[in-house]
Write a structure and sequence with these properties.
27% of the residues lie in helices and 24% in strands. The chain is of the alpha/beta class. It has three domains: 63 residues, Nucleic acid-binding proteins (OB fold (Dihydrolipoamide Acetyltransferase, E2P)), CATH 2.40.50.140; 144 residues, 3-Layer(aba) Sandwich (Rossmann fold), CATH 3.40.50; 102 residues, no CATH class. The N and C termini lie far apart (57 Å). The structure holds guanosine-5'-triphosphate, magnesium ion and zinc ion (ZN). The site of magnesium ion has 6 residues, from helix 5.
Length: 344
């Protein structure tokens, strides 16, 4: 019997839908032996299938898997595209840094890019902030189709997970890239009620200049939570803060003796907002603050009884930092209301 290789794009009950390199989708069962061996199959897995009819097959083997995420369940991720909108919902620089750090932590070595959508409504320029990081920033609009060429270039021949807050336009961007697809686009009224429009995990094979790129439209990583994450690994997710020549290799840049942060900041042009985000995420990891109450809960965190485990650690004065950095942040973020009539 003929066997071919393909990628699982959808799982529905006991059915696995496997797309081959020509784009054809085969409806498959998994051979019982695979499941007995404890091999759970995920969307994104590359598999070998035995063809049993003109459109059906049986999965006989799971090919090697380079990585796997449990939430959302998906294998073989090449890159993550973090989508935020310039407005509606309002752009939140700290939350973007949280996504960047969290995904970097969960999927080390996987390429991460940023897409700022809805630039038809409002322009935003964050290039200066990420200039020293490893992240590429692409500006786009699913409505007037700006930036879609740039997006196609980084998406082609890869499996990319799109993530970001609800309502920023992830589904809309996928639809704009592949107009014949049928996917659900939410309206902001349902988002305001806290509902997520996109629920199940499917790989969407989109035609990008006649080459396939697989996209995963997720409702977002179900929870971005830093509580009890490893602090030195959090530091590693901020590449511009790594290897800056501190006296001790395990320096976390929290005011330790021999810390070189202040000097490195000037020498390497490290942006204050990135340092602020790093410190706030460390505070989240220590459960001193939680997202959404960054400054307000500070007095509670440091004024109340300190957690036993944090006793010997340097304190992070977020409130003081926040006051002095606010002005600089405003200068780095270039906002621009767009006047529709002047746009081409
Ligand atoms: N003006 C403008 N509106 C957009 C753009 N992209 C999406 N929208 C609108 O924003 C709303 C949310 O878009 P979705 O694509 O559903 O957002 P999502 O990120 O998939 O949201 P979830 O599935 O809930 O995570 C819809 O009303 C879209 O029409 C854009 O580039 N410009
Ligand atoms: Mg969606
Ligand atoms: Zn240091």
């Amino acid at each position: 019997m003929e066997t071919i290789n393909g990628k699982i794009i959808t799982i529905l009950a006991n059915f696995y839908y496997v797309q081959d390199s020509s784009g054809k989708v085969w409806e498959c069962f998994a051979r019982g032996r695979l499941l007995k061996e404890g091999k759970l199959l995920f969307v994104g897995d590359d598999v070998e299938i035995e063809l049993t009819s003109v459109k059906q097959g049986v999965i006989v083997d799971l090919l090697s898997r380079k990585n796997k995420l449990d939430k959302p369940p998906i294998a073989n991720i090449d890159q993550v595209l973090i989508v935020f909108s310039s407005c509606d919902p309002e752009f939140d620089l700290y939350n973007l840094d949280r996504y960047l750090s969290f995904i970097n932590y969960e999927l080390p070595g996987v390429r991460i890019s940023i897409c700022i959508n809805k630039i038809d409504l409002k322009k935003l320029d964050i290039d200066l902030i990420y200039k020293n990081s490893e992240y590429e920033v692409i500006y786009a609009s699913a409505v007037n189709k700006k930036g879609l060429e740039d997006l196609s270039k980084i998406l082609v021949s890869k499996t990319t997970v799109l993530t970001g807050p609800s309502g920023v336009g992830k589904s809309s961007l996928i639809k704009a890239l592949s107009p014949d697809l049928d996917i659900r686009i939410g309206d902001l009224s349902s988002i305001n009620k806290g509902k997520q429009t996109t629920r199940n995990v499917n790989l969407i094979g989109v035609n990008l200049n006649n080459k396939i790129g697989f996209l995963v439209d997720t409702p977002g990583f179900s929870q971005i939570e830093f509580a009890s994450m490893d602090e030195s690994r959090i530091l590693e997710t901020f590449n511009e803060l790594n290897d800056i020549g501190c006296e001790f290799a395990d320096c976390l840049h929290l005011g330790e003796d021999g810390c070189n942060l202040e000097r490195a900041k000037i020498k390497n042009n490290i942006v204050d907002s990135r340092i602020d985000s790093y410190l706030a995420i460390i505070s989240e990891a220590r459960e001193e603050i939680s997202y959404g109450s960054k400054i307000e809960s500070k007095s509670k965190a440091t004024g109340g009884r300190e957690k036993e485990k944090n006793k010997h650690r340097p304190k992070i004065d977020l409130e003081q930092r926040s006051r002095s950095r606010k002005k600089e942040k405003q200068e780095l973020l270039k906002f621009d209301e767009v006047d529709d009539k002047n746009e081409d």
